[in-house]
Structure formats: C-alpha cells, structure tokens
Amino acid sequence: MLEHGGRLARAAAAYGIPREAWLDLSTGVSPHSWPVPPVPTEAWHRLPEDEDDLLDAARAYYGCEHLLPVAGTQAAIQALPRLRLRSRVGVLSPGYAEHAYAWREAGHDVTLLPMHELLARADEFDVTVFISPNNPTSERVPVGATLGATALGENTTRPAVLCHDRSRPRSLLQEQRWVIVDEAFGDTWPALFLQPREGLILLRSVGKFFGLAGARAGFVAAWPALLDALQERLGPWSLSGPTRYAVTRALRDTTWQATMRDRLRGESASLATTLATAGLLPTGGTDLFQYCLHPAAARLHHALAQRGILVRLFTDPAALRFGLPPDAAGLARLAQALTEISP
Amino acid sequence: MLEHGGRLARAAAAYGIPREAWLDLSTGVSPHSWPVPPVPTEAWHRLPEDEDDLLDAARAYYGCEHLLPVAGTQAAIQALPRLRLRSRVGVLSPGYAEHAYAWREAGHDVTLLPMHELLARADEFDVTVFISPNNPTSERVPVGATLGATALGENTTRPAVLCHDRSRPRSLLQEQRWVIVDEAFGDTWPALFLQPREGLILLRSVGKFFGLAGARAGFVAAWPALLDALQERLGPWSLSGPTRYAVTRALRDTTWQATMRDRLRGESASLATTLATAGLLPTGGTDLFQYCLHPAAARLHHALAQRGILVRLFTDPAALRFGLPPDAAGLARLAQALTEISP
User: Fold this and answer.
1) Is A263 in a helix, a strand, or coil?
2) Virtual CA dihedral for A62, A64, A70, A71, nearest 10 degrees?
C-alpha cells in the first residue's frame, strides 16, 4: 500500500514524541470538524438502509441529481478501474498517488503526465484522470471547451482484451471514453464544481472540507449507468449507519458551511504568509493546504518532525505540503520552528 | 444486488404502516446492541490509523493471532473471489446468498450443494464455501477430520486461465485449495470457532452478536499471506474511525459478552417455543434466529407483514426466518399474530 499523511502514531513512535504533543499538519483535512451530535442507537444497531435522507441531502449540497455515496473517494478510486477492460489511462502527475496505483493494480496501461500534457494528449487515452484542485500542487483543470474535447471524443477502436470480470456493465461501459475529475478539495469554491454528464465522472470527498476524514464518506457524480455499475461493484451497506447519520446532517448545515468557507480561506492565507515570511514561498495552495517545492524538503520534514510538527513530504519532485494549523497557537508554533530550521 | 432482510423502510412503504409501528424480525442481528459510548471528536476527524487497539482487542476476543478487520463480512465475501483466477467453487446451499453471488460475479464456476454433498465432493473444487452455523438453516460444519481432508488436499493441476488482476499475490494464492467458513453467527458458542491455518479462511461478524450491524465491521482469520493480499485488495481506511472506536470496546467487554450469550440463548429458546406452540415447529435455529420450512411461507410472510411484523422470506426452499423479538411484548405480539394467521 502507498504511504499517506495522517500517520501520527507512526511518527510518534519514530521520533519518541508522545502523540498528544504533535502539531499534525500532514493531511489536507480541515482542522475544524463539523460537530457531530450523539449518534442514535438505531444507527449502530440496524443495517444501513438507502431510504434515509443521505442522497437527497447530497443532491441539495452538490446541486446535481445523479450521485452515489461511497466509503470515501478511496472506495471509488479503487473500484472504477475494475469496471473497465484493459485500457490506456492517462493520469495527472504529480497528483494524489492512489489513482495511478489503482489503475495499475487493475492491469491497465498507465501513463503519468503533467496537466498541460495530459490535456494535450488526451486523445491517446481511453481514460484520463485529473485532480482539481490537484493534491498536492493545487493546479485546476481549465474548465470549458478544453475538457469537453478531451472528455467526449469518439469511441476507441483498439481491440479490447477480455479480462477477469465478465459482468455485463463492464463491456457496456468499455465503449466510452472516461474523464475522471477528483474534486476532493473543491468544497470551498462550490461554484467551480463541474457538472456530471455522460463520460464525465466526478469524485467528491466529505472528509476534507467537513473535517470528517474518520467517517469514510464521499460521493461519485456521473451518469446513471456508471453509477449503477459502480454500486453493483461496491455491494450493499458500504457506508456505516453512524456515518450516514452524521454526513446527512453535515451536508444540510448550510450555515456552518458558509462560515467555514470564509474561515478556511482566511486561515490558509495566514498559513501562506507564515511560510513565505520564513522563506518558504508556497508554490501552490488551496483553502485546505499549502504546497512548497523545495530541494531540501526531506531535511526540512525531518527537522520539523524533531520539533513535533508533522508535515507531508513528497520526493518527486521534492516538496512539502502543510495542512492548516488548528489555531493561532499552532500557527505560531510552526512559525517559530521555521525560524529555527532556516529553510 | 440481492435482496436482504432489514429493509424496513421498503416494507413500511409497501404495507402503509409507519416505520415505528413495525416489529422487525427480518434479520439475524441481535436486538440488544452493545451500548456504544459517545464517540470522541477525533474518531470522526482523523483518518483512521491501524495503530489503535482494534487488532489486539480482536486477537483477545477470537483467540487467534492472524486477523484482518474488514468493513463487515460482506467486504470479505466480495473481495475473496477477486484474489483467485477462475476456479471451481463449491458453495453451501441453501445458505447466505452473497457468497455464490460474489464468486459468480467474479467469473468463477460455481456449484451449489447441500452440506453433505459439498463435504463428500470437496475434492472436485478449488474453493469450498461453508457457512457454520448456516444462515438460515443453522446446520454446522462437522469439525475435525472431514473438514481437514476437504481443506488441505494437494494442489490442483487444472491449468489456470490468467484473468484481469495481474498482481503477484493472486498467482501465489492460486496454487492453494481454499476452504472458507463463514462463522458470522458463531459468537454465542466461541468454543466452536475454528482456528485458521494455511488454506482455511474464517469470516467473523461483529454485527450480529453485538447488535452493531450499522457499524459495518467484521474480521477475517486466515494465514498471513492471504491476509496481506486481502488487505492490499481492500485498500487503506476500510473501517471508519467511529466504528474502530466502538468495536474495539465491544470486543473488550467480556462481562457484557458473557451475560448476553446467556440472554440470547434463553430468548431464542422462547422464540422457538412460541413458534412451535403456534404450529410452526422450527426446522433449525441458532441463538439469534429460528428457521421454519413451510410450504405456505409466502402467505405467512404477507399475513405477518399486514400485521406490522416483518420476517425474512425464503423461496427455495419455501421458509421463514424469525429474528429475536426485542422484548416480551414483541414476543407476545408475534404469538398473537400467529394465532390469527393459523400456519
């Protein structure tokens, strides 16, 4: 399995610093969780049922009709490659690494490309995978005509190699070109969320903006036949009852959402200022993290960890990703540590 | 997808009876949930980490070392068929239908057999799937020599057809015969739990005995290489943070477990007596449900539903499964309804 942020227990052991003493900036998850009320016993007790309000709440929140709840975008990332026969897949790089990993694991031919090349060479692929805004670089897919042309070209004529899964949906879906856009970090600018259509698959995360990464919840927006095939693949009860309960209410809490969007924008701007002041001018950023290319990223990562500050290290290219500190004290602690380690 | 019990919202709509007025006996989930304490914010907020106490709690509870937590036995049922190339698979029938469904969906050659035939003809299969005690018939796999001979014969020499997933574990695991035993309803007799060994895969459910079906949690007990391949297949963060929190504590609560075993035995015996008294002598039963073969099962199911009592209907063979009523009033209500519909 791939390495991820959020491995606080491991860092605590490696650096001999107790867990509660860390400032964990290693994920892009908001430090401010939506406040989950007490979970009713029934949500723990009963098998989860689709006939609750989760789907309608998501339709209202995302402003689109065709959605499938999934156990985090990770579940969709793993399942989508298994709905297609062997395909040529272009994946944004650098970017959230689980995409390329999942397509390769499922036996597809994966090419990693930076944004401009992936857009320019989209015709060469049966499937193109974008992340927008990208994690960790923060690049966005240019909306409009370019993506449209990329997305919905004519059918591929390359002969298909029939593989393991012989169910009907797979062969039907095989006829199409897919464009996948992972919008897991898009919630602070909902007006920029894309609208699904035939051939266009959008991934949405509940964990990041709502600060509910532990809930394991996300949504796929796509055309109905794709969602049917994906649901069949994922099987029944893929979200827990407590998660359905919490996420339904978080998606309906528009007051909290509006306040939090403003707050996160302000806090991310403060983080960027702090980094820039310390000589680490961010190369990119979203409202949930800042990204800094730096040749000595590994040294800085280690030096921060020695001071109980966990950030995410990337090696190709060498870079650091800083999540938002939970409060002003956390930001000040980061600023102080940065002055000590002189980036 | 297959039909299941627990579809109370659907029954409420179909029969025009409000949800809260139903006596839901349609699942084998215990009516008595382990009482989950308030979930700490961190469990919702952070990405779940493997380094909590969940695995050690499960090792203590199940009395075996090699375990993998999964998002319900359903997750394992769906994933195991995708770890093998096309195989000859013998599956217990009648039995929990998701097993045969999952093996077929993954492209394997599935043969459905009753217990004695599956045991007798085990040599014909690369994989045999048992459920013990069986849901819904309650039959148990005879432990000891028979299962041993079934499980661990020499390697199959039939040529393998290389299929979709080209990862390494798949081909390695392909060399083995597998015996899968789904022990989801085994918790009230823990001394009868089998011990995993090479070739023997055991499925354990947290939802039934602990009354936590909404948590979506279970365990696979098997040899390390199988668990590694399964974990790789299921990917990171397959259990939510709140579920890891709750299940860890439920597995450690040995006092509650001992009390509940006695209580469920008593309540299931009372249910059997009630059914027998009404002319529905159970054909089989566990401590969590009773099973009644009956030629007029469909009529009885409908007549009970008209009275706001939901039970599980099986059609091949025609049968009803009754879960435990939550209290004496529920049992009395069932008894009264049965006198009205004269089975």
Assistant:
1) helix
2) 0
Dihedral angle sign, alpha carbons of residues A187, A193, A197, A199: negative
Q: For A222-232, write each residue's pLDDT tens digit.
A: 999 999 999 99
Chain A, nearest residue to B76 by Cα: A235
Topology at the third CATH level for domain B41-252? Aspartate Aminotransferase; domain 2 (3.40.640)
B14 C-beta neighbours (distance < 10 Å), count: 10
Q: 3-class DSSP state for residue A241?
A: helix
Average pLDDT of chain B is: 90
User: Between vectors from CA B185 to CA B184 and to CA B188, what angle results, nearest 5°?
Assistant: 125
Q: Give, rounded to a whole angstrom, the gap between the first and last alpha carbons of chain A.
A: 31
The complex's ipTM? Answer: 0.91
What tens digit of pLDDT does each residue of A86-124 get?
999 999 999 999 999 999 999 999 999 999 999 999 889
Neighbouring CB atoms inside 10 A of A77's CB total 25
Indicate which of B34, B110, B170, B216 best probes the interface with A, i.e. most A CBs within 10 Å of its own CB.
Answer: B216
Domain boundaries, chain B: 8-33+255-341, 41-252
Mutation target for A interface from B46, B56, B70, B162: give the one with most A CBs within 10 A.
Answer: B46
Q: Are A218 and A75 in contact (CB under 8 A)?
A: yes
Residue in A closest to B105 by C-alpha: A167
* Higher local confidence (pLDDT), B317 or B146: B317
Asked whether the beta carbons of residue B29 and residue A46 sit closer than 8 angstroms, the reply is yes
Kindly report the nearest CA distance between residue A323 and chain B, in angstroms. Answer: 13
A81-120 exposure pattern, b = at least 16 Cβ within 10 A, e = fewer: bbbbbbbebbbbbbbbbbbbbbbbbbbbebbbbebeebbe
Tens of pLDDT, residue by residue over B114-127, are 999 999 998 899 99
By C-alpha distance, the chain B residue nearest A246 is B44
pLDDT at residue B163 is higher than 50 = no
Backbone angles phi, psi at A204, to 5 degrees: -125, 140
Beta-carbon separation of B164 and A47 below 8 A:
no
Which DSSP symbol is given to A197?
Answer: B
A-interface mutation test, from B50, B73, B164, most A Cβ less than 10 A away? B164
Q: What pLDDT was estimated at residue A57?
A: 98
CB contact under 8 A, B33 and A41: yes
Quickly state the pLDDT bin for B169 (edges 50, 70, 90): very low
* Tokens linked to B292: 């009644």
The answer to whether the CB atoms of A107 and B166 lie below 8 A apart is yes
Q: Name the stretches of chain A with pLDDT < 70.
A: 143-174
Answer whether B258's CB lies under 8 Å from B110's CB: no
pTM: 0.91
Q: Which fold has domain B8-33+255-341?
A: Aspartate Aminotransferase, domain 1 (3.90.1150)
Q: Which of A324, A204, A196 is nearest to A271 (CA)?
A: A324
Q: CB A10 to CB B51 under 8 A?
A: yes
CA distances from A51 to A44, A214, A222, A277, B98 (A): 16, 23, 20, 52, 21
